[in-house]
Amino acid sequence: MVSVIMAAYNTQGFVSAALDSVFSQTYPDFQIVVVDDASSDGTADILRSYKDSRLVVLHNETRRGAAYSRNRAIKEATGEFLAILDADDFWAPDKLEEQVGFMNEHPTASGVGSYVYETDQTGRRIRAVRFPVYPGQIRCSTFFRCTIVHSSVMLRRSFMTDNNLWYDDTFPGSHDFELWSRAVFAGDFHHIPRYLTYYRRNPGQISEDITGTQKEHAIKVYRNLLQKMGYEPTQNELDCHLRLSGLIADPKNESKGYQSVLIWCEKIYRKNLEKQVFRQYLFANEILLRFLKYCYDNSLGSFRTLRLMACLHWRMRWCFFPYFQLFQRLSITVKDV
After folding, report:
1. 277 and 228 in contact (C-beta within 8 Å)?
2. What is the per-residue pLDDT across 196-237, written as a single tens digit (0 to 9) for each?
3. What pLDDT digit, counting tens, does each position of 257-267 carry?
4. Which CATH superfamily is domain 2-200 in?
5. Portions of the chain given CATH number 3.90.550.10
6. Which of 208, 217, 226 is nearest to 267 (CA)?
7. Can you tell me the distance from the alpha carbon of 132 to that of 294, in angstroms, rounded to the nearest whole number?
C-alpha cells in the first residue's frame, strides 16, 4: 500500500483538487492521511464531505505547523511507501503507478521524485521543470539547491524510520529542503523523467519571500551543508555560496564582484578533494553548471562568461565538459489554453 501524506491549513480553495487527483489514480491501493492543522476556513468541512474509507483525517486542536502535521501523518501511515502531497498541488493520474513500479524495480532506491509542471493559482501550467535524474547528481545538486519537489516524492517508509528521518519542526520554512539535505546522504534518490506532479506557485515560497522566514531557514540549511563539507563558514564564504546557489541575486553588484564567487568555486572543489563528501567528478560537473547559471542569472555577458568558465576549468584542472546535462535540466515555458 501507498500512504499519501498531506498537511492542510486553510486550503479550502485547493484541497479538493489535491484529493481528487489521488482518488483518480490508476494505482488503487492507497490510503490518504490528512492532518488538518486547525484550519479556520472551510477546509475541515471539505475533508468531512469525502466518504471514501481510504481517507483518514486527523485534526490538530491548535495550529502546530506543517512539519509537525506531516510527522503526525507519517506516524499514522501504514503503507510500505509514503507519497507526499501538499494540499495545494495535484498529480497526473498515473503518478503512483509509475513510482510504485520504479521502486519495485529498484529495491535499493530510497525515494523517487519526478519532473514537475509549475502552475499558476488556477492550476494552469506555466513552466515545465526538470531535475537531475541519478542519485549522485541529486546529492551534489542538493548542496546548491532544493532538487526534490516536495509533492513529487515517494519514499520507502522503512528508510525514513530506520534512519530516524523526520521533518524538523524548528524549521517553519524550508523544512522539506532541510529534510532532503539529510535524506540524500542516507540513501539513493532518483527522478523519473516524466511530468507527474503539478506544483502550484503560491506567495510565501523562497523565490517570492526573499526577505522572510523561508530565506532565513534556507540559509540555515546551506550552513549545515557547508558544515558537512568541513566548513564553519565565515559570513563572506556563506554569502559567496548563497550567490552561487541563486538565493541572493544582485546583477548590478555581481558585475564587479564575480571574482569572489569564482574563487569560492575553486575552494569547495578542493575541499571536497580532501573530505570526499561527493564523488569528485560529479561535484566538479555540478560546480561548473552552477557557476554557468550564476553567470547567466547575473547577466555577465557571453564573452565574460566564456572567459570565466575557461578560467574555472583551468583552476580546477578539469577537462571534462558537463554542459550536455543542461538539456536534462532546462525549464521550459508552457502556455496552457
Report:
1. yes
2. 999 998 643 333 444 467 888 999 999 999 999 999 999 999
3. 899 999 999 99
4. Spore Coat Polysaccharide Biosynthesis Protein SpsA; Chain A (3.90.550.10)
5. 2-200
6. 226
7. 18
